């Protein structure tokens, strides 16, 4: 039995195919490449019940991941994050089955660990010794740390305004770190030139094919954790959109395997009002988005003015009957506090945005009664301490409360 | 089949017993109380293999936890943290089987979540509506958030020097938070008076009996994750020492159940050179420690000058043939960087102290060849960003690397 059923890469735009055993970046047409598996064969060889005894990490789905030899797996125990019931909030919003997939409970404190674990493992398998990327913070921290574990050299460029903790994480990994006085798109230009000049592996969002495969495991886990009864709606805070693309890809693979049945969940892309290119494109019924000028939001992780995979995000929304919705910064910060004090979960601002979107969609009647809803919280609130203001009394030693 | 096999509480000092169905604090003799289970009956009713299909949280061990009714469980998905192989570091140190139990991968980012989850759940079961505690930061954050989830009001006092992120977490939970211009012992005095005046539930370290039970699950998980072949040595960064007491208690319970066999692991208490009361007591072969004057260390979580459970920590060390060892702050920070750049794990300074201790103990011949060693990393490095100094270039948008 093979460890992986990976077969080949193909381009979702022009259909060109590529070999999975050599280093690949974008398609010659400029689009990201997707990974294909021999699902027909896998269908005969694996039943979902056999997963039960496996390790509690995303590697439990190794047949559906691109790493061919388990010796190349670089793992810090990532995945199988909790699916937490949010019954108090659900009851307030009138949603009976309300869950949070908590991606803060993972190495490096954000869902970026999934893409990094799978991407770095595959890079190691392909013999990569050096990689480079621009980042808004969390992805750079994750890739730098997993690369360190793999013995791969990394060069990371992030905006000077990226969350300070991610700067510390990247630095402590021993990566070559650069701060850029600009946006992630500016950091991207600098890295683009650097990888070209030095013929390095470019692991920018979607410029290598394997990050999606790591993110895909969120979809696999949600399905397994709900005992293969998939939810009606999944909401995802959307910057580059890789998680949403990955979840959609996972659900389609599971459907082809016959492990899930019926209609796919309606996928919802949640963006910040200050950076909402996907929402704009969806409202205009377009298949691609335009660059969002002067983007700004507290939810730094979703400050992505133009995503390379925008057409895949929009396809996933259209195909599942989902939607795209924008949330004001103020509303997401209010929601963050509400979730903490009501449910005990200190979520990141991006996750809070997705919860705020649930509130808006519920109020405008977009949910039906009795639907089951899953919100992705993409990272731990502790990575963004500046979103919480504390004004409390300081006592001297002899004080009395 | 009962959900829990909890039977009664008893005092490890004077032997007095107490009811588990009413609120209890310390024994009348001043010592902490311990929880007892009907292990004879459990032995007949549960086999370790039956655990395999259970949920990936510490509640998989519900028979060995004090909550009698599953309806009272307050969970954010805590537990079953990864046991990560540290093969590169192990190879450098000449330790063949070297693992890190990574307690950063848990709600609230520290192992304090375990004690809080079980402690708050039992408090809810006992009808508690309000609790109070002093904290060095992480425990307060965890108890405040779990209390919020349970609908229990909390009052938390922490030193003004406690890690700022824990202040944010506690505040965002909606707790009554006070900062104290002093040490945790000063905060403890203020809370002590407050709970007495208002007849509140005091959840200070070991002043209620259930936090140990939560921490105990680290020992249960290590045993299960190693397929019931327990390691030769476990190292634990020791402040209040509850984790070490809990692990020792867990291993004894597993032994009584017949789930593990042979000699218990040698338990090692690791402290900071600037606050090492347990180390001093162990070196002097004493059964209790003295208050450590003017304690100071970067590893804030183990800055505990005198632990209420010191005698239990020392007993666990003596009974297992372990030891106690102190580490300089400089050595732990060096080790923190080493672990990040070599193994890709950004550990907290307390965890780094335990790794530094492995290095010292290996150098002085305390380990035998071929031993298996487990280090507890008690929290995520991202909770202590100030331990990492970053000096990197800032580029303008047009720059070239």
Automatic annotation (TrEMBL), chains A, B:
InterPro entries: Ser/Thr_Dehydratase, Ser/Thr_deHydtase_PyrdxlP-BS, TrpB-like_PALP, TrpB-like_PALP_sf
Keyword list, A-Z: Lyase, Pyridoxal phosphate
Gene Ontology molecular function terms on file: L-serine ammonia-lyase activity; pyridoxal phosphate binding; threonine deaminase activity
Residue ranges constituting the Tryptophan synthase beta chain-like PALP domain according to the UniProt record: 74-379
Any Gene Ontology biological process: L-serine catabolic process
A Pfam family per the record: PALP
UniProt keyword Lyase, yes or no: yes
SUPFAM superfamilies the record matches: Tryptophan synthase beta subunit-like PLP-dependent enzymes
ATP-binding recorded as keyword: no
Cofactor section: pyridoxal 5'-phosphate
Protein name, as recorded: Threonine synthase
Species, as recorded: Virgibacillus massiliensis
């Amino acid at each position: 039995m093979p460890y992986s059923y990976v077969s080949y890469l193909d381009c979702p735009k022009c259909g060109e195919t590529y070999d999975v055993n050599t280093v690949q970046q974008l398609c010659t047409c400029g689009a990201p490449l997707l990974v294909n598996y021999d699902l027909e064969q896998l269908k005969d060889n694996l039943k979902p019940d056999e997963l039960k005894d496996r390790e509690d990490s995303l590697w439990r789905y190794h047949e559906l991941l691109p790493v061919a030899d388990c010796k190349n797996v670089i793992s810090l125990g990532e995945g199988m994050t909790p699916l937490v019931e949010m019954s108090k909030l659900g009851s307030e919003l009138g949603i009976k089955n309300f869950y949070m997939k908590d991606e803060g409970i993972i190495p490096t404190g954000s869902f970026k660990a999934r893409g990094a674990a799978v991407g770095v493992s595959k890079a190691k398998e392909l013999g990569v010794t050096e990689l480079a990327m621009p980042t808004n913070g969390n992805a750079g921290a994750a890739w730098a740390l997993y690369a360190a574990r793999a013995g791969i050299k990394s060069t990371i460029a992030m905006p000077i305004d990226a969350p300070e903790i991610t700067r510390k994480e990247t630095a402590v990994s021993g990566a070559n770190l650069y701060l850029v006085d600009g946006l992630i798109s500016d950091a991207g230009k600098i890295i683009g030139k650097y990888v070209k000049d030095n013929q390095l592996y470019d692991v920018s969002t979607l410029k290598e094919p394997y990050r999606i495969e790591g993110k895909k495991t969120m979809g696999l886990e949600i399905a397994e954790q709900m005992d293969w009864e998939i939810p009606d709606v999944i909401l995802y805070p959307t910057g580059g959109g890789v998680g949403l693309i990955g979840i959609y890809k996972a659900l389609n693979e599971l459907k082809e395997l016959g492990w899930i049945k019926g209609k796919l969940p309606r996928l919802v892309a949640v963006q910040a009002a200050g950076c909402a290119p996907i929402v704009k494109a969806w409202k205009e019924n377009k298949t691609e988005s335009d660059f969002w000028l002067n983007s700004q939001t507290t939810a730094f992780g979703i400050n992505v003015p133009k995503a390379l995979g925008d057409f895949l995000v929009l396809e996933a929304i259209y195909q599942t009957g989902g939607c795209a919705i924008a949330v004001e910064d103020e509303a997401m910060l209010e929601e963050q506090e509400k979730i903490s004090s009501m449910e005990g979960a200190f979520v990141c601002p991006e996750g809070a945005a997705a919860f705020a979107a649930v509130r808006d969609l519920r109020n405008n009647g977009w949910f039906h009664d009795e639907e089951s809803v899953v919100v992705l919280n993409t990272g731990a609130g502790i990575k963004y301490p500046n979103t919480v203001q504390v004004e409390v009394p300081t006592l001297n030693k002899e004080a009395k409360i």
